[in-house]
Structure to design on (447 residues):
């Protein structure tokens, strides 16, 4: 167990609340500060601003140790101050650090040493800039540590409390030790390093994961052309201990709050330093094209999309979250609407509202697929595993399933009377309608 300390958190967003809740679980006192009064009010009355499994329980269990506030002066008590604010991309693709600088403006002045800990994903070099800013403000007692998060949505509490590693980049050893001590009780390798390397570890880890996804998606596309099955290929690759089985699920492309933003930020960071990160540029482009491949698959089966009813099943960027940031569903819906299709949508938790203007949201899968010419599995929700059912078959105008996540067993779906197409899996020739509309992918992207 860690020796109990007081931890201040800037930002009651997803990272801030997971970090705060989990540090309280480890026995620390936590003060979470946000600038949005409604959010603080909601948290004080136990209402969650987003869906994250296990987090409401952690916050509730540790209620006595967590305080929410609008007032940054309350952070004076804190031994460590974690910055957990957003760093969205700017028009240039750089990371927008304005929330970080605002947090710095709000730093309380204290006599004893405090450590400022960066959890937000920031460009390499931010630590140096923050150190200079702290010195410029006369905050010489404030140490700086880069301690990136590797939390995956839907399993963030588990990722925090049972991580693969903890990365701590510091300018001074005493600050690194102070932050390491906060994680007491967690058994995992601790990577102590310099600040720039810690910042780069986060960006490189994400870039590598994205590279694996775009790689397997391209293998899937080649599999389609040559009659191989990417699910089998990934299985065969994954047993190689040098490669491992993770992040080899071919699909509809990655989305979310981190990958798309962080890949752009790293590409931009490299090019700002005069380096063209060719591989990363390709990873990003492959992903954009992958999101659009479903359109071609639909056209292949049902011809022109004008007037056709297409059900998008699952809208969140992945299962287990209601997060729609950079979700492939948004790209698909707007491409379908632009082609003149009628978009019917369903998701168990995500509520797109204005983001999917023109699409109609239904409460159940069965309502969404009623009268549809095609059903597209966009998110791998468990609720969709039984999609190839008699009820769905009867409800649809045309029993066609495009499985963007390879969630269903192709043989079972076909045996149930559906025309079925996954990603990177063989398609039997009988399922392809004579009227094909092969499109140039580049042309798709440039629309
Ligand atoms: C990711 C990283 O995993 C996490 O370490 C980082 O801190 C933030 O970004 P997250 O965005 O929550 O977390 O989701 P993740 O589970 O990593 O998936 C990201 C995207 O990749 C999703 O759209 C997912 O559907 C897609 N994906 C993932 C694939 O398409 N194939 C895979 O094999 C794995």
């Amino acid at each position: 167990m860690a020796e109990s300390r007081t931890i201040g958190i800037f930002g009651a967003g997803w990272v801030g609340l997971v970090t705060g809740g989990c540090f309280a679980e480890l026995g620390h006192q936590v003060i979470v500060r946000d600038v949005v009064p409604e959010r603080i009010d909601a948290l004080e009355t136990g209402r969650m601003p987003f869906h994250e499994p296990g987090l409401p329980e952690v916050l509730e269990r540790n209620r006595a140790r967590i305080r929410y506030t609008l007032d940054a002066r309350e952070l004076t008590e804190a031994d460590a101050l974690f910055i957990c604010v957003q760093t969205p991309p700017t028009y240039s693709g750089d990371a927008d650090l304005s929330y970080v600088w605002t947090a710095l403006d709000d730093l309380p002045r204290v006599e004893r040493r405090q450590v400022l800990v960066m959890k937000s994903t920031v460009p390499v070099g931010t630590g140096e800039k923050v150190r200079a800013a702290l010195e410029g403000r006369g905050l010489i007692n404030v140490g700086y540590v880069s301690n990136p998060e590797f939390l995956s949505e839907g399993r963030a509490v588990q990722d925090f409390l049972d991580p693969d590693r903890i990365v701590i980049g510091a300018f001074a050893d005493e600050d690194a030790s102070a932050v390491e001590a906060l994680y007491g009780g967690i058994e995992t390798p601790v990577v102590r390093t310099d600040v720039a390397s810690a910042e780069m570890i986060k960006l490189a880890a994400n870039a590598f994961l994205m590279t694996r996804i775009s790689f397997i998606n391209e293998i899937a596309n080649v599999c389609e052309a040559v009659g191989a099955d990417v699910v089998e290929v990934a299985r065969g690759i994954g047993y190689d201990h040098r490669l491992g089985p993770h992040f080899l699920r071919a699909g509809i492309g990655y989305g979310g709050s981190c990958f798309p933003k962080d890949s752009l930020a790293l590409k931009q960071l490299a090019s700002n330093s005069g380096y063209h990160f060719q591989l990363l540029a390709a990873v990003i482009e492959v992903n954009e094209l992958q999101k659009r491949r479903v359109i071609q698959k639909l056209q292949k089966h049902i011809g022109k999309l004008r007037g056709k009813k297409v059900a998008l099943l699952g809208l969140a960027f992945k299962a287990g979250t209601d997060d729609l940031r950079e979700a492939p569903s948004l790209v698909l819906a707007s491409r379908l609407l632009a082609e003149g299709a009628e978009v019917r949508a369903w998701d168990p938790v995500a509520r797109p509202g204005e983001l999917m203007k023109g699409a109609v949201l239904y409460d159940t899968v069965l309502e969404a697929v009623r009268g549809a010419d095609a059903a597209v599995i966009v998110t791998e929700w468990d609720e969709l595993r039984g999609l190839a059912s008699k009820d769905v078959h009867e409800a649809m105008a045309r029993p066609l399933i495009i499985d963007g996540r390879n969630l269903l067993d192709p043989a079972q779906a076909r045996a149930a009377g559906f025309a079925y197409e996954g990603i990177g899996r063989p398609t039997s020739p009988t399922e392809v309608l004579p009227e094909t509309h092969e499109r140039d992918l580049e042309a798709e992207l440039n629309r």
Observations:
- The longest helix spans residues 195-226.
- The chain has 16 helices and 14 strands.
